[in-house]
Amino acid sequence: MKKSFNTKLFFFIVATLFGIVLSIPSFFQTQGPKITLGLDLQGGLNLLLGVQTQEAIKTRYTSLAAQINYYALDEQILLDRLSVRGDFVSFELLDSNEKAKIDAYLKTIPGLNITENNLYYTISFTEAEIVTLKNFAIEQAIGNIRNRLDQFGLSEPSVTKQGEDAILVQLPGIKTQEDEQRALELISKGGHLQMMAVDEARNARVFLMTDAEAESYGDVILPFADDPTQKILLKAIPILDGAMLTDARAAYDQNGQSVINFTLNAQGGKIFGDFSGKNVGNRMAIVLDGKVYSAPVIRERIGGGSGQISGGFSVQQ
Asked: In this structure, are 223 and 235 located in the same domain?
């Protein structure tokens, strides 16, 4: 009697052979489609990170104040008490004849609520603009985390948005405590860059000054990164911030020291060039996440929209 053909067995054998063929590149690192093992198969690090979107909005208010300050200086418009107060920027216009000019300028900046009472201005972002800024902060954070992980050679990281304001980071292959700590440091570090003017007239009294007194002058007291006991008095409204950067990367100077070369966008380049030209002999502080990394003296006008940050730090820093 002739044996019947076993269809189920046939398809099982075919499926098994097909799976083995597809797995060969992953086992032997040969060419062809490679199967990536996830966290469940090869282990690793799984992180759910919250994004401080309010900090991003606060930073944007500081950037807005810097824009207004630069425009007023460039147009020789006198402003008083320009400051960032929580969720708004405020200032007083000292010359009513300049009102039409400042009003026209503010209208060129999208997403603002502007109120004015007897030449005292209060400016905040619209609800729609706040939503846009929060979404941008999350996308920017995702991009920054991916770039950092790629730069340090962590293989096949997954960085995705989770819900409204969280980021899921999955790092397969993290095996040791050292690798885990290194990855956590990479991911959790901030990166808010500001260039700020030193208050040369009052800085000699910085160690005798309270934060409240500094604020009354429109200043802020910040520590140095390499020695927190050393402090410096800076103008609270920055010259420019990281939002105007288009590129920043580690390099070496002519003496073989680690430096950061940076490039600014058109607006940042103009602000940087004008400020440096008008402040030769004064200092400009390089501030990252509220700590001063260097405060070099401006020797000449720095044009071209690019510059270099030095501070005796390592390539890793």
From this structure: yes
pLDDT tens column, 112-136: 999 999 999 999 999 999 999 888 8
**Residue pLDDT, tens place only, 217-256:** 999 999 998 899 999 999 999 998 877 877 777 788 888 8
Domain boundary residue, one of 190, 212, 245: 190
Statement to judge: residues 101 and 171 lie in one domain: yes
Domain count within the chain: 2
Asked if residue 29 is part of any domain, the answer here is no
Amino acid at 95: D
Q: Is residue 20 domain-resident?
A: no
**Residues 162, 201: one domain?**
no
* Enclosing domain of residue 245: 193-310
Q: Using 50, 70 and 90 to split pLDDT, how confident is the model at 17?
A: low
- Long-range CB pairs of 81-89 (<8 Å, 24+ gap) are 81/218, 82/218, 82/237, 83/218, 83/236, 83/237, 84/58, 84/236, 84/237, 87/57, 87/58, 87/61, 87/124, 87/125, 88/61, 88/122, 88/123, 88/124, 89/61, 89/64, 89/65, 89/122, 89/123, 89/124
- Residue 14 covered by a domain: no
Of residues 168 and 41, the one with the higher pLDDT is 168
218 CB contacts (<8 Å, ≥6 apart)?
Answer: 81, 82, 83, 235, 236, 237
pLDDT above 70 as % of the chain:
80
